Amino acid sequence: MLASSRYRRKFTSVILIDMITVKPQDALLIIDVQNDFLPGGSLAVPGGDEIISVINRLGRLPFGAVIATQDWHPVEHMSFVGSGGLWPEHCVAGTQGAELATLLSDEFISIILRKGRYKESDSYSAFFDNAGRTTGLSSLMDGLGIARVFIAGLALDVCVTATAKDAQKTGFDTFVIMDACRGIGSVHEAETRLSDVGIAMVQSDGLA
Prior knowledge:
This protein has 208 residues and is of the alpha/beta class. The chain is built from four helices and eight strands, in the order βββαββαβαβαβ.
């Protein structure tokens, strides 16, 4: 159960939280804000560029760690349509499409974690790949004394949701910052998937 659960109240499928004070025991996870997921990219998330200014504001809050992830796929990765996967070729390691968005400020990012590096397995979550192998993120944050994680990025209904669920399973109090995310599919469905397992959803102006 979330340490802040006594403050929770249900509204439709969204769990709203009263104002939260960011502390050094908190981490901001920025999921896959990369060129290929922005408008004009090979796997563009609608409105993906709209969250960058929100994330840049969040980065100035006193988080103990700000961690950005990158899909970092080898050529002919199993997730690509040409290899029998679901997605167009995207975020190939070392390409411009795999780079973090130009307008995303790097001054507050302390750690970059690259995932999806195994040709035979995808990695939606920042914590584990789809075959169950750890990325080392949980141990890293344990070492930094992190207790709560706040998640922003792309795409809400894929990598953000997978990361949030694994963060919660791994023992972190978990929050998804909804106005700092965009999705490919239905926002309502993503909200339902998160609220069904008790993951809190907040707005960026609820953090100080």
